[in-house]
Design goal:
Number of helices: 21
Strand order of the largest sheet: 1-2-3-5-4
Oligomer: single chain
Number of strands: 5
Distance between the termini: 89 Å
Structural class: alpha+beta
Order of helices and strands: HHHHHHHHHHHHHHHHHHEHEEHHEE
Shape: rod-shaped
Helix content: over 70%
Largest sheet: 5 strands, mixed
Amino acid sequence: MSFLKIGFLAFLFLITSCKNQEENPALDANLEQAENLFATKQYRKAYYYYNQSFLFNKEQHNTKRAVFNLLRMAHIENLECDYIGSEATTTQAIKLFDKTIPIPYQTNAYISLGLNYMHLANYEDAKSMFEKVIQITDDSLTVYISKNNIGYLYIKQKEYQKAVRLLSEIENEKILQESPLDYARILDNKGIALFHLNDKLALSYLEKAKTIREANKDDSQIVSSYMHLAEYYKNQEPATAKEWTQKAYHSATKAFIPDDRLEALNLLFTTTTNNDLKNQYHDTYIHINDSLQQARQQAKNQFAKIKYDSEKAETEKTAYQYKMYGFIVLLILSVAVFILLYRLTIQKNKSKILETQYTTETKIAKRLHDELANDVHNTIAFAETQNLENEQNKETLLENLDTIYQRARNISNENKEINTGKNYLEQLKHMINAYSSDTINVILNTSALQEVPLNSEVKIALYRVLQELMVNMKKHSECSLVMISFKETNSALEINYSDNGKGTDNQLQIKNGLQNVENRIFSINGNITFDTEPNKGFKVKITIPK
């Protein structure tokens, strides 16, 4: 006789107890759907939603709900005879146990493991699970149900005396009298144990259990009583045994219990002498058994696939999360590096600007000292020592003063404030063209500059750079032609300067002489290159990013 009915009524009692003790907020959608399907015995469909609810509650850190879902899944796997799968699911639930898990959940898990071990003929481990339930629960009915399970284990191990002693200890407990179906299981198990010991009291226990079950109209347990009575009469009264077996078969068919139908068919096959009936029972047995095994294998495959798909999805989700975390970390590092480089660039540009300002101020001071101060000193000395009433001396003094004025005006013009507004381009053209003379022809193309928007900092730097290039040309190049052009590209403004002067092969001299120019370009994140050779003129290429 299968233990399925004997043990799982206790299992159902405990899992119902678990559900009744749920004090959490309203069920999530998946769990609600699963419970509705479970109530209508659509176990395989319910399994999927229990698994979805488990994943949801695990992510929400609702351990109690997660454990509840796993226990439901383990129960469904056991119902479908996937005992190894049920064992694994129950073990997964036990690993989640913490102080939030109620005792009924825990006893349910250990009973589940005990039942799975029993079906797998691992009787010692099954017994240890039932004993653990007895240790941790203070519910008397749960204790007696667990002891009844241990008694059944003794029967499976053919230790009938131990079974009788244990079942005799609990059969008269008052709480069992108030739970007739549990009481009937204990009586039925004791009757089977007594039967194997050839004790005449066996029949009275079996019949009493049957009477209780029929009164409570429990088809699953009634089948069990009918089968045990058939077994009792099998050798003594074959005809009576056959009658009980037929009753068991019809009750199992009515209650949709295929395992009991198979057991009844097997007993009918061995007790009948009619060959036609034997063949009929045999064919029916083969058909039911094949269908049952196929259905259970499909269920096992379905459960395994649901678990595999959810684990795969969780793994992919975890991998995606790690990838996103990596991306975020990389993004943060990139932003940090960008900010650092930006600050370093700003600091570097500030240094360049300060250096340029210092160089400019030094240059102005030097020109004031070397050019203007000497002229002023000489003019003062001339005025103190010469007769200014003399017309020629007076003319010389005026010429000297005019020279001083022109020098002061040139220095002022070279360092005066630059208008970066709408007149900027005209002012730039005027400054460059001012260096044109009878011996120097300046060709200027500024059409591209009109299309490119430049901020004030860039305009000032560009103005001063071109001014210094023109000053450098006038002092050193000895050229007759200067060309300056502006060109717009996709990403930058390009300025090209060239003259046909004498050039030089001394790059260091160029660097030193035009350091101010280079610093100004670097301060606006631009780039500058010099190209010159003796007697081949002088070229400069400037690139300023938009």
